Amino acid sequence: MESRISIDINADLGEFSTEKQLANELSILEYITSCSIACGGHVGDANSIKFMIQACKKYNISIGPHPSYPDKEGFGRRQINIDINDLENSLIEQINLFFNVADSLSVPVSHIKLHGRLYNETFKSERLSNLLIRVVESLDREVSIIGPAKSQIELLAKASNKTFISEAFIDRVYKEDLSLVDRRKEGALLLAVEDQVNQARSIILNHRVITDKKKSVGIEAQTLCMHGDNPNSLKTIKALRQMFTVENINLKPYS
Q: What letters, b where the CB count within 10 A reaches 16 and e where it falls short, cover 44-77?
């Protein structure tokens, strides 16, 4: 029977610091269709980028850079005091590093996705959303922007005729406006495999998500994110693929 619906599954990778974390990331690659790779802002360098791109090439996974606030100490997950021009230069530097490695390997780049605090802030910030759009325009390349559904970056990217891929998370708890509950708050993460799979099923099949206040709200997503540093990430992605088989959901790259 032909599948009635398709979805892309992406992961944020290249964030490993131990052999165990690296092994987990490489295992995840067998189950996803796109990948955003850390490129030096919060973690990563030319060597880790090259390694992960080569691994993604093996599985024919769509790739893109995963730039962030230049904040290795805080893993890009805290707000830092930085001049907007310095931030723009840092993003361009991170993205160009990624493109230089990808070009050297003759691997096409499909998208750009911000990391951590900067990603979350583009949900409401017109200033930061326009900054990302300027950075993308400066590249003179055809790349999509992956970002939060129903966000400022979605609105402004589409207004600028940029291809936007709306994203939802299977392991994060949402507020009613579809912003994410702050990671620092208790209950901000869905840790149980069953809870993550149920949220993914609801988003894909019902276009709904249950918020922190237990309210069901609508959400439209073209790609679902699996965080590689989630403790149950490998178990979850395997269970997710099993659910896809049961529900007749086709796994397909957004591109």
A: beeebbbbbbebbeeeebbbbbbbbbbbeeebbb
CA distances from 99 to 38, 43, 103, 224 (A): 12, 16, 6, 24
Q: What does the alpha-carbon distance between residue 231 and residue 190 come to, in Å, rounded to a whole number?
A: 11
pLDDT digits (tens, 9 = 90+) for 149-198: 999 999 999 999 999 999 999 999 999 999 999 988 998 999 999 999 99
Which helix (H) or strand (E) covers residue 216, if one does?
strand 216-218
Angle, alpha carbons 164-41-252 (nearest 5°): 35
Q: Is the pTM of this model over 0.85?
A: yes
* Domain boundaries along the sequence of the chain: 5-251
Q: Could you tell me the fold of the domain covering 5-251? A: TIM Barrel (3.20.20)
- The predicted-structure confidence for 128-145, as pLDDT tens digits, reads as follows 999 999 999 999 899 999
Give the N- to C-terminal CA distance of the chain in Å, as an integer: 24
Query: How far is 239 from 31, CA to CA, in rounded Å?
Result: 10
144-148/249-251 β-pairing: unpaired
